[in-house]
Design brief:
The protein is mainly alpha-helical. About 75% of the residues lie in helices and about 0% in strands. It contains 16 helices and no strands. The longest helix is centred in the middle third of the chain and has 21 residues.
């Protein structure tokens, strides 16, 4: 296990779903994250900027400051910090960290093209190192950005690329193979729903469920994602009541799920319930596709009250 700055960089480089606890992060990062979790974003930014003043090449501080700026909606400034981090990177790993952060920063602007550009750079980074799993994860991560940006064809291309790459992992277990197939059915179901292809979407939902039924160990972790899929498809094919029933069984701490539930409540004319969902979603402090969609989307909904 890596320690110190190397461990922190490794943490940032992993896709969000694979990130471990940051026990080895620098002290100023841990203090800054406490401020972020408390909603004290400006104070966290000041803390990180103080570290940058001491050492302008401090990539951990540059990346952390960029994350806070994205949460504040100052995405252009955020990318300036991330680019400085990439320029100051002592090695390929640290540079790839900055690329991943830039990809997510563009996601906060709902910019599929630029998010995918940096996501593909991260994909290449992992593939060059023979890590098919993380390469596939990198492709899937920006594919999710592209779906919500409405770039459905690009999203499908990235999801298929991610799946094909992940399946090339040496000595792939049956459950890992099923996981990649489940993820692809999940993506294709959402894409079909967004394209107005209800029957095709429902077929993908059924295929995803069949994979979970056939792999009970995998299902223990993936069951909430099935309800996310079923809820998403119901919402985008005109059944908000069914969508809510499914989404209530998905991850209730996921800000993207909270936004989907808000949309369903709105379609049912339940404005107060919708606003409560958006309020929860607006408070997310993550730097990943769910947060990148949810934080600005929910803020706009709340501002339009």
């Amino acid at each position: 296990m890596r320690t110190g700055l190397a461990g922190f960089l490794s943490f940032l480089l992993l896709p969000a779903a694979a990130q471990p606890p940051q026990a080895n992060a620098p002290e100023f990062i841990r203090e800054g994250q406490k401020l972020v979790r408390a909603g004290q974003l400006e104070e966290a930014l000041a803390l990180y900027q103080k570290e940058i003043e001491k050492n302008p090449a401090n990539t951990a501080a540059l990346n952390a400051a960029g994350v806070v700026l994205d949460l504040l909606g100052r995405t252009t400034e955020a990318r300036q910090y991330f680019q400085k981090s990439a320029d100051a990177a002592p090695d390929a790993q640290a540079r790839a960290v900055a690329w991943r952060q830039i990809a997510m920063s563009y996601a906060f602007d709902n910019d599929c093209a630029n998010s995918a550009r940096y996501g593909r750079m991260l994909y290449d980074y992992w593939l060059e190192r023979g890590n098919h799993y993380n390469a596939g994860e990198a492709a899937n991560e920006v594919a999710r950005v592209c779906i919500e940006a409405g770039a459905l064809d690009e999203a499908e291309k990235l999801y298929r690329m991610g799946t094909e790459t992940g399946l090339k992992e040496p000595n792939l277990s049956a459950d890992r193979r099923a996981l990649w197939n489940f993820r692809l059915e999940h993506a294709l179901g959402r894409l079909a729903a967004r394209r107005g292809q209800k029957e095709a979407a429902l077929q993908h939902v059924a295929a995803a469920k069949a994979l979970l039924d056939a792999h009970p160990e995998m299902a223990k972790q993936q069951q909430p994602f099935y309800f996310y899929l079923a809820g998403y498809v119901a919402l985008h094919t005109g059944d908000p009541r069914a969508a809510l029933e499914h989404l209530k069984q998905a991850n209730q701490n996921d800000p993207f799920i909270q936004c989907l539930m808000g949309m369903a409540h709105e379609k049912l004319g339940q404005k107060e319930e919708a606003m409560a969902c958006y309020k929860r979603a607006s408070g997310t402090t993550a730097h990943n596709p769910p947060a990148a969609f949810a934080r600005p989307f929910a803020a706009k909904k709340l501002g339009a009250r």
